[in-house]
């Protein structure tokens, strides 16, 4: 339960930021057929998140609602995204995280299927690995986990939790589904999202070119 | 024969909706070389449909005409698309359908040729299958039929009719030609169209990556 | 020699049409690195054509000049494109042609190299073959010739001439170079250009998918 | 040390030119996740260059700073790009160079990894080779060097220097990283950049199509 009110002015700023950024991601084709969802931390107990089922290319202020850290709607009778729990568990667990972006680009979906058996995608040897907060060289390697898809968000959230016990993480794939990426704020989360998309695209193309097995 | 008049105000609204949406689809490259056609149900006896041969990237109100459910022009001397019958048979058959979209994206055309021999494309294991009205899980499978191409629309319409006797359907491919997709209204038809395009694209890419045979 | 003056008002209209259309083609990435050239028939003895070397994404009226049907500049000290002769020979030979478009898309260039050995690309089984003026069915086949590249335009022009003696033609490829397409006016030439691009793209993708050898 | 002042009016013009051009390159997806950097020669002793870490899709005047030819900031407490030295060494060495562009497109990154073992990519048989200043025929061949990546810019700069002793060069790749291209001014550097991108894309596609080994 969350009895404290949130700051309406901050909500207005974040809602504007979300709709502007989601429109850009929709234009890239990363949110097909009303899929994908996006959120920002409002304060210690509240999250601004996109409502269920909206066309991400035509979003307005009315498509952003507030939930508490358990995913329960606050002062709203709108339905939050079915995957709200995957957002709120990250905010509960990682106090430094202020933004969570979930997209369904073709590259993300294809990579998730291709590497589902292996359970992860290893990214190494790329200068762009420096885009992930904390990396300062291309000599690092980043393993992107791929979880099995399920309509049970508690199962998925628990798997993410278990992995976060073992390693730092800026994103993960769900098989046949898409990518979750996050960061301190919108700018960092988008930088991480773009880096994942770019590096997964390179891996798929290199495989088509006969350089991966 | 259709002696009843239609609602001119509703036609104006639908024509605006069609031209706006077609411009977006044209910008995606899904309507090459004046191909493709689009319609909306006006009322029980009338359909608003794009005229034959127009450049879909430069459409205006003058490129939308009215036909009855037999495909005969109503109060117009313009020529409706040669494929008008494929639209009107869906409206006759399926009272809940309010919008039919026919596009020619490269992905749709390539998939139609690749799977013409098999007669269908099986889509399974994707979260985006939930985009099709009536599906609530990625554990469903959707089979997209691929019909042989013909310049005889009666033959094609009868094949679609026969298939609708057996199963619900939100779209089909025609070999070397393109995709038909439909829905309750423009928003749902576009959601179905985008989901077909996305999933066919994933299937083609997975095959290039050696994951389909 | 061409002593007759041309209609300046018609030139203004055609120059505007060319720059508008070229900007659209440049935005598609079909005119990389100041390549490509474009023309319209002004009258029986004059052609409006793009000047040599301009960035096709930043064209204005000053980048359109007039040449006679021998390719000689008329009332201008600008240099026409090195390939002007390929345009003017088509206008000389084919009185019904009013527009010639030469682009360098990746698809066109790649197809030209892939099929240079065979000397042609066969396009068949596509609904979009109906986009070529004179075709009314997908059951036609269109062979797109691929000529060897040369910096000698007279050699190329003679090869095109020889082929036109044998068959009607709406376009051809030059190896490692790009595509020429033409039509009655800008709309028809663009329809032909888009159809070639689309069909060559489908052929390349089908080959990647193992459906062509 | 560089005690002479630079021309503030010229800096304003170049900064505007850089931000306009970088926005276009960002829209193409060639500057993912705040990567890439860009510069223009201001005068014999100064260079205008993008600051470190900015989102290239949202650049303004405040993201352009001045360094001397040793890469030391002039009248600024901003941090120049880590790769500033790769820019300034080109300006020191090649007096005719006025613009250096470094991008990270997927094509550039993929090609750099694919050809890193060979140490170069040979481009031949393309009309677009004429886009490189000094080439007048498609019968030339251009070898694009691929250097091993390193976070030590002095090592990379020395390798580029050694190669410039042997041959003229308009660009090079760094493994897993991206492309450097340059020219007399922004227009020529962009023409070279577009030509490299286009030709590398063609090479990758031809390899997928079984025409390269």
Automatic annotation (TrEMBL), chains A, B, C, D:
Q: Name the keywords, alphabetized.
A: Amino-acid biosynthesis, Lyase, Metal-binding, Methionine biosynthesis, Zinc
For the Class II aldolase/adducin N-terminal domain, which residue ranges apply? 16-204
Group of enzyme by EC: lyase
Q: Which domain of life is it from?
A: Bacteria
Keyword Transmembrane tagged: no
Gene3D superfamilies linked: Class II aldolase/adducin N-terminal domain (3.40.225.10)
Identify the pathway: Amino-acid biosynthesis; L-methionine biosynthesis via salvage pathway; L-methionine from S-methyl-5-thio-alpha-D-ribose 1-phosphate: step 2/6
How does the cofactor bind to this protein, according to its record? Binds 1 zinc ion per subunit.
A GO BP entry: L-methionine salvage from methylthioadenosine
Its Enzyme Commission number? 4.2.1.109
Cellular component, GO, one term: cytoplasm
Residues where Zn(2+) binds: 102, 104
Example GO molecular function: zinc ion binding
Reactions the enzyme catalyzes? 5-(methylsulfanyl)-D-ribulose 1-phosphate = 5-methylsulfanyl-2,3-dioxopentyl phosphate + H2O
User: What cofactor requirement does the entry state?
Assistant: Zn(2+)
Q: Would I find Zinc among this entry's keywords?
A: yes
The UniProt family comment states:
Belongs to the aldolase class II family. MtnB subfamily.
Return the PANTHER family for the record.
METHYLTHIORIBULOSE-1-PHOSPHATE DEHYDRATASE
Briefly, what is this protein's role? Catalyzes the dehydration of methylthioribulose-1-phosphate (MTRu-1-P) into 2,3-diketo-5-methylthiopentyl-1-phosphate (DK-MTP-1-P).
- Protein name as annotated: Methylthioribulose-1-phosphate dehydratase
| Species in which this protein is naturally found | Pseudoxanthomonas spadix (strain BD-a59)
> What gene is it encoded by?
mtnB
């Amino acid at each position: 339960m969350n009895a404290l009110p949130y700051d309406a002015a901050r909500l207005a700023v974040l809602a504007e930021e979300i709709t502007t950024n989601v429109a850009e991601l929709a234009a890239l084709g990363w949110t097909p057929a009303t899929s994908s969802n996006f959120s920002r931390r409002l304060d210690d107990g509240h999250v601004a998140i996109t409502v269920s089922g909206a066309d991400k290319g035509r979003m307005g202020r009315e498509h952003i609602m507030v939930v508490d850290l358990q995913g329960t709607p606050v002062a709203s009778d709108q339905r939050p995204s079915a995957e709200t729990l995957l957002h709120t568990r990250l905010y509960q667990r990682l106090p430094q995280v202020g933004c969570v972006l979930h997209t369904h680009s073709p590259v993300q979906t294809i990579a998730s299927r291709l590497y589902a058996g292996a359970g992860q995608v290893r990214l190494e040897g790329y200068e762009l690995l420096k885009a992930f907060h904390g990396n300062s060289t291309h000599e690092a390697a980043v393993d992107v986990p791929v979880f099995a898809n399920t309509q049970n968000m508690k199962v998925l959230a628990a798997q993410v939790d278990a992995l976060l016990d073992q390693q730092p993480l800026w994103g993960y794939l769900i098989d046949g589904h898409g990518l979750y990426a996050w960061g301190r704020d919108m700018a960092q989360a988008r930088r991480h999202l773009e880096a994942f998309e770019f590096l997964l695209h390179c891996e798929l193309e290199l495989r088509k070119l006969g350089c991966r097995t």
